Amino acid sequence: MGTRIVIIGANAAGAKAAAKARRIDPGAEITVVDRGEFISYGACGIPYYVSDTVQEVAELMSTPVGVMRDAAFFRKVKGVEVLTGMEAVAIGRKEKTVSLREDSTGAIRTLSYDRLVLATGSSPVTLPLKGKELSGIFTVKTIEDAELLKEKASSSTRACIVGGGLIGLETAEALLERGLTVTLVEMRNQLLPGVLDPEMARIVEKHLAEKGVAIHVGCTVEGFDGNGRVENVATTAGNVPAKLVVLAPGVKPNVTLAREAGLEIGATGAIAVNERMQTSDPAIYACGDCCETTHLVTGQKVHIPLGSTANKQGRVAGINVAGGDAAFAGVIGTAIVKVCDMNAGKTGLTETEARSAGFMVETVLAPAPDRAHFFPGAKPIALKLVAEKESGRILGLQAVGLGAVDKRIDAAVAAITFGATAAQLAQLDLAYAPPYAAAMDNLIVAADILRNKLEGHARGIAPAEVKRKLDEGDDFILLDVRSPGEHSEVRIAGAKLVPLGALREKMEMLPKDKEIVTFCKISLRGYEAQKIMEAAGFGDVKFMDGGILTWPYDLERG
Amino acid sequence: MGTRIVIIGANAAGAKAAAKARRIDPGAEITVVDRGEFISYGACGIPYYVSDTVQEVAELMSTPVGVMRDAAFFRKVKGVEVLTGMEAVAIGRKEKTVSLREDSTGAIRTLSYDRLVLATGSSPVTLPLKGKELSGIFTVKTIEDAELLKEKASSSTRACIVGGGLIGLETAEALLERGLTVTLVEMRNQLLPGVLDPEMARIVEKHLAEKGVAIHVGCTVEGFDGNGRVENVATTAGNVPAKLVVLAPGVKPNVTLAREAGLEIGATGAIAVNERMQTSDPAIYACGDCCETTHLVTGQKVHIPLGSTANKQGRVAGINVAGGDAAFAGVIGTAIVKVCDMNAGKTGLTETEARSAGFMVETVLAPAPDRAHFFPGAKPIALKLVAEKESGRILGLQAVGLGAVDKRIDAAVAAITFGATAAQLAQLDLAYAPPYAAAMDNLIVAADILRNKLEGHARGIAPAEVKRKLDEGDDFILLDVRSPGEHSEVRIAGAKLVPLGALREKMEMLPKDKEIVTFCKISLRGYEAQKIMEAAGFGDVKFMDGGILTWPYDLERG
């Protein structure tokens, strides 16, 4: 008889572990148990099913060539038994058994294992809010959720989304696409906390607001009102009338089974595993959303549930339970989201994360077109690079904009994974032709500015600091070095205009001993101006990071 | 008096060197000399100017914010003197002077330098062909070339392009867009030699042929006929009537000035420089298309002229001539081209290049959609990864298809630069959400198959080898494991159909001792089939790399 491998959970991680175990050990008896009816589906596609971008739920459950990944598929193709509608309720570690409860009958049966894989996934965090049991309040995690939500959405006009993270934003887009009026409430004082620093998040917030989403950040939900059905969301910013509410407050790992079996739970709240995806019981492995992993930049344990990570971990667990030897190194916190034609993502650490992890950092904001500026269809993107000050090592990249942010993130993923410095990043031989990038890719430009800062040539100042100076009436000159044409279109109140082309002549009129902050559209002319003025003997000149394009505050127009 | 820095050549490398030198040394006297009238333009944009994709030549010569980069701009903004219409004709190394000939008058003047930068660029290779002086025969290198070519194109109907490299293909697309009938002639027996391996190049060739381009590979041009104006291109494949001919046989570095000054010319034919971009004369630097650089995978010197590299080298030369200290590490041979909605590119070494550099290699062909297969707009791309067999180190990636190949290349650029192995590539935390990638990105899938091959789990066979077996009547079974529906649409003649889902039942009917080659659409089911049959005791099963999607030969349809 072959090794008995039991896998609990038939989505990304569990399905992958099963398939991989089968390839490694043709003789194993492999059984996958799942409490749902739908198995191995693309859970990350659910917001797109809600928006009807993906029309048929079957598309989420098929292989790329259209074969349905159901129990029959797993049996025939993979030689793997799948039991659906069965919840694993207890693990007998001593006797190596799992107790399963059949959903339909409540009957209990027992499966014996030689090796067990926990791929129990994650669930939406439960908010202890008054009225949360009212109908019309949804989470978006399973296909069943999505079906209910779609039905409700087609008879509703106003929706309120609680949570401005990845799923909250994807759901906001989905409901906008369905024609609903959407209000989004986020407890922290920015969208996408943990993904973007505040000034980058503001770009997303402005864009969503332009698309008609009412956004309340720094706003806490106090409860829901309604008579059986939700009609109002009570928040610290007032009442939000809505007959449809989506709770997207983030997810927590499903660890009850593991905890009750006495397996070690990490400080993150997820199941602790080693590099081989092995739990504190050597016969039991865990993979996917239910377990924690290592952040390769900080070395700390983290719980960052993602379908991409689940697949990689499932592969490793599958190899190991089948008698092979594989390891999963960890993640670097990459995340990306599309929301109303805007792309936003990051990899590595944000400035906020880096500082709270104890790093001394240098940063740069670099907005620019995503390909040669003369190539039709070029769209703006803004990058924020974060580096360790002493070593120049890149700690993280954030990228936001209408253009191709994903490829800059993916290139940075590889660079950060291998410990690249700003100097090394700036010399990467990235693919160049006008339809794809400028001769100096956005990443190269950002890395070059970062080098200039790290080497002390460029002196930047963050937009938030400039705003503080303006608000507090500091004695400094904010110098706009753009052209008169650009200035007449849009400008920062209180800035003085001296176009870069006239600066060499006109700077004599400026005081050499006063603090001067230069800026332009994207910060390159601002930096140029800093160098010109320093060379002329000005004592305290800085340029404002990112220029007017990433100025997150109000602008004067027209 | 400041350091006198003279720069010869005012395009990418020269202009960058000048700007950077100014920022490092505010007191330097910087003069840039160029023989043309147009300076600092986006030369890589010229094919798009030919196609009218870029409408105004000014767009190629402007900064991203629309400021014209002309001599006045350099003077006012950069504090750099630019002399146009001046050809540098001799360097007096002993006395540190450059002799300039004014184009309009023929007058000679002399400039003294403390440090000199050669940014003399490259020129199209001259083909020693009969009739090449006929009118209607063009190269595409300068804006002046493009203006003449556009004028001619508007009165022509048939064009012949000589050369199937990057510029040849971009020009083919440009002339197609202008409504011309295009024939393309390439001496070697594939398009994009040096960029793609033959089976990858075939994907591009098929696509261009579908768009109506007549392609002759392995075809040499013997001469041009016509009475003052070209009317016919005589080739080894017969006559190609054309009143417009574009020569795109590649470029050679402009080294006459350097050679006559006694500077060392490398084996590549380009100016030899060290990491600081310094030539054999310590007072003279070179950067951009005129000089050679180091290939970071092979360690060999190469001449790969690209605007992206020119900018990076210009920065380094600029820093060093201004008294700073910077180094340029090298390139890894990245290239990319858009041709009629198809994207094709590579980084690192092709299989051909890797083998001729002496590497023992393992490769994988992995076609798949460029994002979650259920996400609307997903487009196919094919990746080919090349790794060193012993170490698993990734040597190169090729990517071809209608979808996002550039981001896979850029991620691979960083990975290859830092010496990533297949195992490391497979665990990169690449950005995942359905609009951007599948949960397992194309790169991850390719790297996983490569690992399976390197570890001996997966046994692949190249399409070319399968074709040879079929043609020579080898005794083997070619097993199509796709569905009957897929098989009825398109198939390889001589293959036997046993759908994967039926394989476990039906494989008993196949001989266990015969060589069996499995395949599907993309090779994943083919690999699955190999594992199933091996487990059942079949002795010699391989899967065909890339499946039917990258089969470069004829297919039966309908």
Automatic annotation (TrEMBL), chains A, B:
Its cofactor is FAD. InterPro entries: FAD-bd_OxRdtase (IPR050260), FAD/NAD-bd_sf (IPR036188), FAD/NAD-binding_dom (IPR023753), FAD/NAD-linked_Rdtase_dimer_sf (IPR016156), Pyr_nucl-diS_OxRdtase_dimer (IPR004099), Rhodanese-like_dom (IPR001763), Rhodanese-like_dom_sf (IPR036873). It holds the Pfam family Pyr_redox_2. Residues 472-557 form the Rhodanese domain. Keywords: FAD, Flavoprotein, Oxidoreductase, Redox-active center. SMART domains: RHOD. Belongs to the class-III pyridine nucleotide-disulfide oxidoreductase family. PANTHER family: NAD(P)H SULFUR OXIDOREDUCTASE (COA-DEPENDENT), PYRIDINE NUCLEOTIDE-DISULFIDE OXIDOREDUCTASE DOMAIN-CONTAINING. This is FAD-dependent oxidoreductase. It comes from Geobacter benzoatilyticus. The lineage of its organism: Bacteria, Pseudomonadati, Thermodesulfobacteriota, Desulfuromonadia, Geobacterales.
